[in-house]
Structures are given as C-alpha cells and as structure tokens.
Amino acid sequence: MTSIFHAADANQLLADLPVAERDAFIATCETVQLTFGEVLYQPTQQVTHAYFPIDSFISQIAILVDSRLEVAMAGREGMLGISLVLGVEEAPLLALVQGEGQALRINAANFQRLLLSSPVLHQRLKRYLYVVMNQLANSAACIHFHRIEERLARWLLMTHDRAKTNTLQLTHEFLAMMLGVRRAGITLAAIALQTRGLIRYHRGEIIIIDRQGLIEASCKCYADDCALYSKMLIL
C-alpha cells in the first residue's frame, strides 16, 4: 500500500501544504482501498468521513425517482465530502466509486476540527468548493444544450484524466446511466467517435486513441473546467 506521506503528495489538494499542516493531516487520516461499485454515501445520509483520492475516482450522482445522472467527479485533483467545509454533514448526492484504488480518509469531526488550525488547506478547499459549484452548474447546462457525442467526449476525457490509463472498462449501459441518455444514443455517439479514429470500443472496453482529437470533439465545457481548476488551485 502507498505510504501515507506519498499519498498526501499524490492528492493535488494536499500537495505542497506547509509542513505543520501536512503533518497534522497525516496524523489524523488513514489510507483505504476503494473498490469499483462501492457506495460511499447515499443522498441525505450523514457524511462520516471525507475522502481524498490518490489513484481512485468517485462519481457523484443525482437520483430522480428511477433515473440516475452523474453531475460531478472527484479524483486526485479533489475530494469527496466538501460539504463538511460548510459545516453540513448531509450528503447531497450518491457517491459511487467508479475507479478503484486508494484514498486518504479522515473522520468528519477530525476534519472539521483540523480546518480551524490549517489556514492554507482551508483556503484551498474553499476554492475547490467554488470549482465544484461551477462544475455542477456547467453539467446542468451541458446536459441541456450539447449533443450526446460532445458530452461523451467530455466524459471520457474527465475519466481519462483520473484513471491515468488509455483503456477504460465501460459498457454502453453504464455510460447511458452516467450521461442520462438512452443506450442507443450512447451507441451512435461511440460509433461516431470511433469512426473519427478517436477511440476504439470493443466488448465493454473503450481505448483512447487520439486524446487531442477527443478534446476537439468535446464541448467547450471540458476546457472551461480545466481552466477554472488551474486558475483557482494551481497557484
């Protein structure tokens, strides 16, 4: 298992913290293994822990009656449990592990107490909260205005960023659920991206062939999300 010191450096929100803040954080958290399909929170459930992914990533999913739609994603660039920064201990969304791997986990009460003596971390997390708010707003607009092919390209890029591999284990059924569209729409969009030589799809496996081409095929939302994160958090 990754050493806890290396783990703190691997998550971009924790990297380069002042030594005192970094040591205090490490002393109050643990490294855990997250498994694919694991549910970390249910909507309205009490948030008992905050998670800082190392090489895992987590989908945050809105549930409406019998429908599900991914509205945000957290990997090593972010965290899960950002509502704790506001003093809110209720989960707003379903949190589902999409990419298995390790994460740093910290008890909610310890996390909130730690923020009082960690001004740099606290400031970073407030900026990250702003990024997440924009990501949620952009997702709403993207779903309404952009074509499925553009949205699929964006989603694949977001997943690729966090998975750190060109090979993604994804079925059309899973993609349809994540994007909130019919399976037939995903099939047509995937065929279009494959025809353009951007991806290769076979039996639940999507391979990224041309990342730059995928960026060009994506809606502008992807570039806007990356630019905002850099502006707010890469200082």
UniProtKB/TrEMBL annotation:
Q: Provide the HTH crp-type domain boundaries.
A: 146-212
Q: Does the keyword Metal-binding apply?
A: no
Q: Which UniProt keyword terms apply here?
A: DNA-binding, Transcription, Transcription regulation
Stored InterPro entries: cNMP-bd_dom_sf, Env_Response_Regulators, HTH_CRP, RmlC-like_jellyroll, WH-like_DNA-bd_sf, WH_DNA-bd_sf
Protein name (database record): Crp/Fnr family transcriptional regulator
